[in-house]
Amino acid sequence: MDQNLRQREEKLPAIKLTIFQYLIVGVMVVLIFGLWRLQIVDAQNYRSQAEANRIRKVPILAPRGQIFDRDGRLLVDSYPSVSCFLVREQGHDYEADLPMIARGLHLTVDQIHAILKKYRAAPKYEPLPLKQDITPDEQEFIEAHRDEMPELETVDEQRRLYPKDGFAAHLVGYVGEVSEEMLNDPRYAAYEPGDVVGKSGVEESYDAILRGVDGSHDVLVDSHGREVGKLGTEPSKPGQSLKLSIDLDIQRAAENAFGDRNGAVIAMDPHTGEILAMLSRPTFDPNAFAVRIGREEWNRLITDPNHPLLNKTIQAQLAPGSTFKVIMSLAGLQQNVAQDLKVNCGGGVTFYGHYFACDKKHGPLNVQQAISRSCDTYFYTLAVKLGISSIAKYAHMVGLGQRTGVDLPDEVSGVVPSEEWKMKTFHEKWYAGETVSVGIGQGALAVTPIQLARALSGIASGGVFKRPHIVFPDEVPEDYRKAMLDTYPGSGDVTFPIDPDNWETITEGMAGATDPRAGGTAFASHLENIDFAGKTGTAQVVSHSAGTNKVSSVIAERPNAWFVGMSPRRNPDIVVAVLWEHGGWGAGSAHVAARVIEAFVNKQRRLNHNLATEKQEPVEVGAVWSDPSSPDGMGGRPVVAKRSVKTPELDAMRAGHFFIDMPPAANGAGALAAAVR
Amino acid sequence: MRRFLSFRDFDWTLLGFVMILSIISIFEIYSATLHTKFVGFYKQQILWLIGGLFAMFVFSIIDYHRLIDAIHWIYGFCVVSLVAVLVVGTKVLGARRWIKLPGGIHFQPSEWVKLVLIVAVTRYFVGLMGKQLTWADIFKAMALVGVPMLLVLKQPDLGTALTYTPVLLAGLFLGGIDLKKGAILVFAALLLGSIAFTSGKVLKPYQKARLTSFMNPDADPKGSGYQINQSKIAVGDGGVFGRGATKGTQTQGDFLPIPYTDFIFAAFAEEHGFVGAVIVLLIYFLILMRLIQNAQTAADLSGTFLIMGVVAVLIFQIAVNVGMVIGLMPVTGIPLPLMSYGGSSVLFTFLALGMVMNVRMSRFVN
Predict the structure, then answer these.
(1) Residues of chain B positioned with their CB less than 8 A from the CB of A20
(2) Mean pLDDT across the stretch B335-341?
(3) A4 pLDDT exceeds 70?
(4) What percent of chain A is predicted at pLDDT more than 90?
(5) Interface contact A34-B326, CB threshold 8 A
(6) Is CATH 3.90.1310.10 what the domain over A57-245+623-660 is classified as, yes or no?
(7) B345 touches chain A (CB under 8 A)
């Protein structure tokens, strides 16, 4: 062996070592090419990835804009709140701490496990929300255990504070976490997961104005997310505050007068379209949404047959009943049919072989008396004379069957039936008998309270119809305003002249409705010294009961009670539409409208005489904690806080509510001043 | 037999290049551990280097023929020690790779087996020189390398086991395997490899994940692909001139995994850029070329074989490690010779160099 190994003369072929050399050259070329690709070609891309690795943007949430009434009284505020998150990538065994965490945060271990399970698909590095809106002692617990439990992280947030007891809930709306569907919607392109977004009412339609722009701290971190330095701060831009056209005094009068009935009230200034009050019943507590709403509460709200989340002033489409007779009169007079039409009401009339009943024997009537006394026989006859095309034409002219373009989300358009409409919708022929029903606001006719308020007050204003709105147009930028209007093509301000004689006839007829001397249907709501006009409506909800004057004992079969009232009778300063679902008689709604009108007129008179307005009770605004007893620990039934933080101001807030008590500025355009007591 | 060895014939040029890389390595280990709990590892590495240099000089005066003569004993001892590791070895991170020696030194035999295999393969093929390699010869060679390889795979240490293959391949190539048998072998290897990969029994799931994730690291950016992604970001972040020593954000922020061992080249590339990385590759190139030159001028066949065995292992490790760092190769856990932190690796490299030095010096002897 040794000899063999030492054959000095034997050599390997030189080519083999040369092949090795080429192999080495090849390897080097490939490696240098790889380096070239990463470090020269794509260097920028990798540099930014490296930066993204080490720079974490900690958001600074922009406080949401406050909402005031027309006199600058605070309606919606935000308050600072702290949420607790679980950070799982700390190299720390958080599982072992769970019982301790549960005790400190007043949760159960099962609840925490439920949260972990709920977010099991979330990436490890994403912090999980353990509990929102934690109390000061829970906050203290987290601070005190920072070293043992680095996995607990707190985040400062702003939460919404709405009036208590669902006061003005539907017009204000509520906010919530942006949903996945919304994020996929191009309209919400600027939103990121976890953002708070307005989901209803003014909060939704003016979300872009109210929300502001979040800022951020740029923090240097290592791979464990540990902070190793600071880079800079991008401050947040607070959301803009909004002044609503709502008058807290009128709103309160409406809320108090309407009580717990089901339905809706809307008060508007017909000169401008400014909405002065708006309510829908049953109401809900928007504060329950400020902390993530619990499933139970949510289910209760969406399954309630009375639809508490529906803003009935713009979303309930119902037969207008006799209130439609005002529009019928307009059509009849403008078409020169009603001027000379006299009808002797004998308690009903037969058309097309069918008997149409009236609620009583009114005797001989002209159009003005027919409005005041709401005689069905008269309007059956007028409907037959006009025909459905003419009726539909005037109904469309005053804005029925289309959205008013109010600056609130999800308004519905209602229905104005016609031959074309029936063919298109049901592929059926129009029956002449249907025209007779439409003549008294029944049949397929469906309107919203806001449409009715705008239509009747527009007629009383001599044919000037304004777009209803709840935020003063000069509160928002021009382009935003325009975009809002463009959302509802065809809506807006409409003017068509009404013959002065006809105008007078109709307005006198409506004034007669509240006048006992004229035998008006709402004579009981007569207001002494106030020029109060209006029209009742009792709309049947079950077809077979049409024409009967018996109030059903089954509530669901009772007719809907309408009233549209205004003051003064011509060129009114205020119009109030009241819908009392299954309220029985329209006169009951007239009573509510009378209280609202009274409040408005009294306030105007005091302002006109430079008197201080009456001392009103302040609006209570509720603060809400999450309820630890809810299944996921994240919300559930809102409960009023029992404990307080350090500052006396927050103390008052957290103790349950604070009061808004600010006399309205004398000229109505007062400074945005609000006192939190 | 032993006549005259002179350090005048020592390859000082080669040693110079090796020392440049070693010093670069120490600085980079210093930088990469600066903000970790491993701070001060560079001092340990200096000690290893001094030990390595000493071992190299000792080894360079041992006649390599005596090593070859005694290799069957050494080989046997190695196999026994590998078995011992499996039985009594210390388990670290799920793998038994180390034997704890008295004095607290952890010893990783699999690293040294490489050197032993180089010598064993040399002896085997030089013995067969001049005759056509039969299939029997080839299978015997494969068994020679295969036995320790399987033992190391069992630890499990896929990376080190893989570094044994270039020794076998270089031996077969230089030993004169003919083209046809070579082609059959390559084909068979590919077939076996794909069977092993798909069967799920040979490779552990994490090994499989590492092997596939380099092809699509974004599929699981927080799992197996994480290391590849972070390494590529680190290298790319370096740009032309680098972030500067101790200023690499990927390296210092602990985003780059183990930046002082397997991913040290990524750390270096981030802090010293394309220029620095190419200079290091150039030094490797010069070292390898210098080694081949020594192989060419070796006094006999066994000397050539020995040096080429070392060359094969070095090329393989450089290609696989740097390839992994820049995302062209899977994560296998193979250190970069002369750069990565670690005593066993340093000692292997310097002992191998010592052997090369002896081959070089021996050509002037006689």
Answers:
(1) 292, 308, 311-312, 315
(2) 92
(3) no
(4) 20
(5) yes
(6) yes
(7) no
Q: Which of residues 217-276 of B touch A (CB under 8 A)?
A: 222, 230, 232-240, 249-250, 252-255, 269, 273-274
DSSP conformation class of A194:
T
- Nearest residue of chain B to residue A227 (CA atoms): B253
pLDDT at B49: 94
CA angle at B163 for the pair B183 and B325, rounded to the nearest 5°: 105
Fold of A312-521: Beta-lactamase (3.40.710)
Residue A610 has pLDDT above 80, yes or no: no
Domain map (residue ranges) of chain B: 12-362
| Contact status, residue B339 vs residue B21, Cβ threshold 8 Å | yes
Q: Tell me what pLDDT residue B275 has.
A: 95
From A117, A204, A227, select the one nearest A487 (Cα to Cα): A204
Task: Please name the residues between 81 and 140 in chain A that touch chain B, using a CB distance below 8 Å.
Answer: 123-125
Sign of the four-CA dihedral A397, A398, A399, A400: negative
Crossing angle, helix A449-460 and helix A325-334, to 10 degrees?
40
Beta-carbon contacts of residue A109 (< 8 Å; ≥ 6 apart) = A98, A99, A102
Q: What is the pLDDT of residue A669?
A: 32
**Contact assignment for A53 to B250 by CB distance below 8 Å:** yes
- Give the SS3 label for residue A124: coil
pLDDT-based confidence at A10, cuts 50/70/90? low
A444: DSSP letter: T
Q: Return the residue of A nearest to B248 by Cα.
A: A50
With a cut of 90, say whether residue A640 has pLDDT above it: no
CA within 13 Å, CB half, A56: 15
Q: In angstroms, rounded to a whole number, what is the distance separating the alpha carbons of residues A458 and A637?
A: 44
Over residues A66-86, the pLDDT tens digits come to: 899 888 888 888 877 888 888
